[in-house]
Amino acid sequence: MKKSPFVVIFIVIFVSSFWCSSVFAYKVKKTKNGNIIKWNKNTVAYYVNTSGGPPDSLAAIQAAMQTWTNVPTSSFRFVYGGPTTSTVRNPNDGINIICFRKMGNTARVARNYVRWNKESGELFDSDIVFNTAHKLSAADKCPEDSYDIQSVLTHELGHALVLNELYKQTHNEKTMYWKENKGDTKKRTLDRDDIDGISYLYPEPERVGSEK
Ligand SMILES: [Ca+2]
Ligand SMILES: [Zn+2]
Question: Of 1, 146, 174, 199, which alpha carbon lies 20 to 30 A from 191's?
Fold first, then answer.
């Protein structure tokens, strides 16, 4: 009998640590009637206008798309649709663009304008605009005074899936953590929770029973 309080404590610790690690650290978004907001397809193309962006923007943009595409447990693919000259976001044209434009230095580094059907939750347009009022970099090693566009875009593409911001300080290593820091390239790579998020929304059906 002496041992029983110890066992209880152990179980509590075990349960609480299990609970913390298994609780979803990704956030999906739902319509008022409870439908998950997401694409109704698993391949989404972006047309890119690199005008106004730093050198090598296109490579950084494609790398960010590839990061989500590469998740083996998800069927989702971002693809490069080709160049565009547009800088006008139009949430109703069904054409997804990535472009660079000055939005004022108090505005965020980038914004993703996502449009979905309020009833079904089907997403049909995402236009991402980088704010050139901030210093942006597409270099392999991001300078301390600039925002890394590959990191910022990997995060914004997470919103395009649709994954929501994570606000807790304990999530600051994750791609969906809300805050962008200068010189930071952490969000280029996905955390376990980011991977779980895309895999939950767009599972890979053929993976069932295979080795990965
Ligand atoms: Ca559009
Ligand atoms: Zn965000």
Answer: 146
